[in-house]
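Bug report

Summary: structure tokens for 7-methyl-GTP pyrophosphatase differ between web form and batch submission.
Environment: batch mode, default settings.
Steps: 1) Submit the sequence below via batch. 2) Compare with the web form result.

Sequence submitted:
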Amino acid sequence: MTPHKQHATAPLILASSSAYRRELLSRLQLPFTCQSPDIDETALSGETPDSTALRLAHRKAQAIAQLSGPALIIGSDQVATLNGMQIGKPGNHENALQQLQMMRGQKVIFHTALCLLDTRPDSKYPCQIQNIPTAVTFRDLSDAELDAYLRIEQPYDCAGSAKNEGLGISILSAIHSDDPTALTGLPLIALTSMLRLAGVAFFN
């Protein structure tokens, strides 16, 4: 028998077109819809990586809030950094190989920002926002190994050029985070805390 669940009292919207975030959110077994926000994701001059991630997570949620009625809207963004330098999505094989060559043997910090907007008029927590950092150490692998990995998994839409939930875990030597799903793109521990404050019950 499937236990009864009390779901959100307002529509739950994921402000993202990411298949990774959609899969992660589906683990919570709550009904939700996805809408893709149309925003400029360029970092501002002088902006720190964590500030970029937080601002963009908020902007994504805001963009959808302007198009919807009362709802719980989830925005998330991730910025990877090596020695303070931002590392974005590579987009193609050549850029991905350059990223992995630069990061091998190095510790990279992934800033995953999460924003939950509650646009209901009686909301006690209209905006919850948090940055969840993850420290990832890359193995010191040869060019041939890195090239072979990229040709198999083709993680060209991933900041840092590796899918830790897939074969990419083989090119990493350590992951340190308070929220293990943050690295994949949606910190579920932080999100469930935010949703609980918004009145969402997961099981009764």
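Above is the batch result. After comparison, the two runs are identical; trailing whitespace caused the diff. Helices lie at 19-26, 49-65, 93-103, 143-153, 188-197. The first strand starts at residue 12 and ends at 14.
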